[in-house]
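Reply to dn_fold:

You asked what the input looked like. This is it:
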Amino acid sequence: MTEIEALFDNNEFYLTIKGHADYAEYGKDIVCSSVSILAFSLQKYLADHEDELERLCIDGDDGVMVFSCKIDDYHEHDLRQGIMAIVGGFDILSKNYEKNVHFSPKGNIFDKSFT
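and this is what came back:
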């Protein structure tokens, strides 16, 4: 099972992805591929906005990916929307593939209004 934890706290964002979805055999696992493409999308999005972040760390090794960043106050609204659009994909996957993906949102990650 893939375990995903996400947290937004005072403009600090953290996301950890661990494990394999085990939906199908290696190389044919559409759930694992979906998790991977969301992770790569988040990596690209954060890297493209690195100048708007006070701190960015992306690390990955042996089935674990870790993202952390602090968004500056001026760009918080726009960057949070972009991050949450991608993170929402992990939530959808976990609801559609409950045996393969577990998503743990921490704190008030989905509570903030974007309007």
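The radius of gyration is 14 Å.
Hope that clears it up.
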